[in-house]
Each structure stands twice: as C-alpha cells, then as structure tokens.
Amino acid sequence: MEPFRIDIPKAQLDDLHRRLEATRWPPELAGFGWERGVPPNYLKELAEYWRTSFDWRAVEADFNRYPQFRTEIDGEYVHLLHIRSPEPDATPLLLTHGWPGGFPEFADVIGPLTNPAAYGGDPADAFHLVIPSIPGYGFSTLRDTGWDVPRIARAWAELMRRLGYDRYVAQGGDAGAVISLVLGLVDPEHVLGVHVNMLMTFPSGDPAELADLSETDQRRLAQLGRFDADQSGYMKIQQTRPQTLGYGLTDSPVGQLAWIVEKFQEWTDPAAKLPEDAIDRDRILALVTLYWLTATAGSSAHFYYEGAEDVRRAVSGAVPPPQSVPVGVAVFPHDLFLPLRRLADRDIPTITHWTEFDRGGHFAALEEPELLVDDIRGFVRSLP
Question: Any idea which residues carry the catalytic annotation?
Fold first, then answer.
C-alpha cells in the first residue's frame, strides 16, 4: 500500500481552461430539447461555469482529508480510499462505483457510514469504508485488456485480504452492483452479504414467467424496451468501439462534459428539468473533471467491451450461478433499470432484503444519500 494524495499540476488545470475557452461548437439547430442530446445553450452555459467558477482544488481538499492509497494488483495500480470508523467494531464495507461514476460520488455518504453517532445515528451501524476505483477509472491504471467483472471481483477480494478484513460487506450500483454480486460468488467465505442499488432482471423466454404481471412490473418490462431503443447508444458504442470513442472525449473537454452530463439528465428524477435540479452541479463537475484530468474516457469505456458477452447472456435470460451469501436490493424508481421481483428471486434465491423507494434515480449516493445509507444499515443489521 503506497500512500496517495491528489495533486493535479496547475498546468493541467490551465490547459483545461484554455481548451474550454477555445471550444469549437457545432452549428446550432433550433426546435428541440434534450431528445436529440444535450441542448447547445445549456451546454455552453455549463462549460463556461466549469471554466470560470468550478473549483477542482476544493474537490482535492475534500478527499485529501481521507487516507488514500495505490496498490498493485494483477498488474494494475488500484487507487482506493480506506476510511476507518472511530468505532473499533465497525463492519468493513466495500463500495464500488459504476460509469460515469467514481469515488467522488460517495462524498455525502462517507461521514454517516463511518461515524453515524456524529449524524444522529447508532454507533452500532458504523462501517470501515474501502472505496476503490475500477481499473481504467480515475487514478486506477488500465494497461492491459481482459479486465472483466470476474477479474475485478477477484482483485477486490485480494484488496480486502491485504487490508486485513476477513469478513466484509460489498455494495454497489451500476457496474458496482454487478461487480459486488460476482464478488459474492468468488469470495463467499469472506463476504458477509451484498447490497445493490441497481439490479438487472431479464425474461428467459418462458411465458409462464410473465403471466399475471402487475401493472408496475408491466411498466418495468416496457422500460427495458425503451432503454434499448432510445437510451442505450452510449453502451453500444462503449461495448464495440471504446478506443475510437476515447480519442474524441480525451481531446475535447466539452465532448467529455456532454457525454457524461446527458446521463445525469436521463437517469435522475424526471421532475428535474436539468441535471443540477437533482444533483449539485459541482458534484457532477467533480466527476466530469476527474475523467478529464485522468484521461480515462476511453479506458473506462473498455469495461463495457470486456463485459459485452456477459451482458448478451443476461439479456437472453440466462440464470447466473447461484449465490450463497445474503443479498439486499434497494430499488429507486427513476433508475435506468428496474427489477421484477419474481425474476430477481429466480436469479438470486438468497435475497433477504428488498426496499422500494418513492424517489431517487440511478445515482443514489448523490441523489438520495440518506435513503441509501439507511438501507445499507438495515440490510447489514439483518445479516446473521
């Protein structure tokens, strides 16, 4: 474990500001909103705010308060935050981000999870937190191909072993949910349980599975079709041509900004007219800036390429290997995927905790941190 501190050279920040000021904008087409992509007037204003008002040094200072490390696992350097609770008997909790996420998305849950007494909670609910960055994301390197979900899960098991945690809980959303579930499969003797705030469920083709569906489940099933038809373009590009995509996004900060901010508009509460109506603007820009400064647009997209075949199997309704550890599921109603409980039980017979919320979307730790924290606590309390 090598101590790590975020300290981006001023020259890189100056270069970002120069590039933003010199943006080459496409010709404008009138008469549309978000349905064709990020509207130019909105993106121009946001890019100017990024250039003149966003404070990356404040982000650095916020996270440099916490112990950070890099360690080499299977040929890659993995960046992590390791934040021990003041409660000595706290439960180790491994938090895994997804795309377009990263460690900054957990800013608002670190305090309540590690030190609940300071936030009006029960000290018995405290956690020691381990927050790694997936290889190819943030300050974690990606120098070789083959980093699929099982390989990442095995790396996380090794990481927890190095940190001295014999028993721990895994948690994640988006890609972090998939990684956490596979971690439960590859390291069941050490994983106490897995909690996810996104779960994908797909029909197998057996008509009996879909008999007598409730109206809620019918809407959720229809959402899968809408996602494939209208919202999955980013995924199909990243699954097939991540390297080509990376050139443009790594060279243009406004391109990187648009690529990410569109997801915050689509995957949060639809009552939010703009992404920052659901999530603080500076929180979104902290993630965009992290991708830009680390030049990880392409390397993060390679995760989708590595997992493309697994996604195809899941979409076909293939049942995953059986879990032996307890699983908790938090369902936020405006997530991009919403699970059907009967299909979830088919795939994961060890589900012991299931919560349906009435608000919140894909970025639970940013949108509804209190709800997410409470649900993680409730799941862990229920573990034997």
Answer: 174, 304, 362
